[in-house]
């Protein structure tokens, strides 16, 4: 099923931030997916021109529906159309799920460290939601770096208390009033303060822009984390 294109109808659109939108698609026949996987979306114009982009699923598959949270890319021909112009009831083509390495399975019991930069939160949020849905008791810690409070995707959901999930949101441009940490890029000190120490032997997932991912991964290795248990996914 992964290699085959199928039709998928847009059944819901949710605004997450001023620049991010969640699309809920109803594929013809979806085989299910693991938290962290992605899929290809293909658009075809009337003149036959096609454009394909890969997007991470933002939630477990439920009732045959598949969710993607998409960040608008300035001048991006696909993201702008999907976020702003694709009408409810319209079809796109979908191929997936894709990827078997950057995934979290609900049978895993090891502590988990999630490190997200910007829209890199999307596949990590799928892991958080899968944990919640499955009733897993694996302990999660999320470190989420964003520019400003207005850029926090899934803000209400992340603000809600959840047993076994600890969340730290770091700001790089503007921090909310009363924040103890001044705005700055993620540092080794942040990972030490909010992550797991190597003694907990956690699974680590990092997703975000290339520079962010490289900085966070190098910092975790410097802390003594096993590089083989640090999984990364980058964009841009």
From TrEMBL:
This is Ferredoxin reductase. Its cofactor is FAD. It comes from Glycomyces mayteni. Signal peptide: none annotated. Residues 3-104 form the FAD-binding FR-type domain. InterPro entries: Cbr1-like_FAD-bd_dom (IPR008333), FAD-bd_FR_type (IPR017927), Flavoprot_Pyr_Nucl_cyt_Rdtase (IPR001709), FNR_nucleotide-bd (IPR039261), MRET (IPR050415), OxRdtase_FAD/NAD-bd (IPR001433), Riboflavin_synthase-like_b-brl (IPR017938). Pfam families: FAD_binding_6 (PF00970), NAD_binding_1 (PF00175). Keywords: 2Fe-2S, Iron, Iron-sulfur, Metal-binding.
């Amino acid at each position: 099923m992964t290699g085959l294109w199928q039709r998928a109808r847009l059944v819901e659109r949710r605004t997450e931030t001023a620049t991010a939108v969640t699309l809920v698609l109803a594929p013809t026949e979806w085989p299910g997916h693991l938290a962290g996987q992605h899929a290809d979306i293909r658009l075809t114009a009337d003149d036959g021109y096609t454009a394909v982009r890969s997007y991470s699923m933002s939630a477990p598959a439920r009732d045959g529906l598949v969710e993607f949270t998409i960040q608008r890319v300035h001048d991006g021909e696909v993201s702008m159309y999907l976020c702003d112009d694709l009408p409810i009831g319209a079809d796109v083509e979908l191929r997936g799920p894709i990827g078997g390495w950057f995934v979290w399975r609900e049978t895993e019991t090891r502590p988990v460290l999630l490190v997200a930069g910007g829209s890199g939160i999307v596949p990590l949020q799928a892991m958080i939601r899968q944990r919640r849905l499955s009733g897993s008791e694996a302990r999660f810690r999320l470190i989420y770096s964003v520019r400003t409070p207005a850029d926090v995707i899934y803000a209400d959901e992340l603000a809600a208390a959840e047993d076994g999930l600890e969340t730290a949101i770091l700001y790089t441009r503007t921090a909310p009033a009363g924040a103890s940490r001044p705005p700055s890029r993620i540092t080794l000190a942040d990972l030490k303060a909010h992550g797991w120490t190597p003694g907990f032997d956690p699974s680590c997932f990092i997703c975000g822009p290339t520079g962010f991912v490289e900085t966070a991964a190098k910092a975790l290795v410097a802390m003594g984390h096993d590089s083989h248990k640090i999984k990364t996914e980058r964009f841009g």
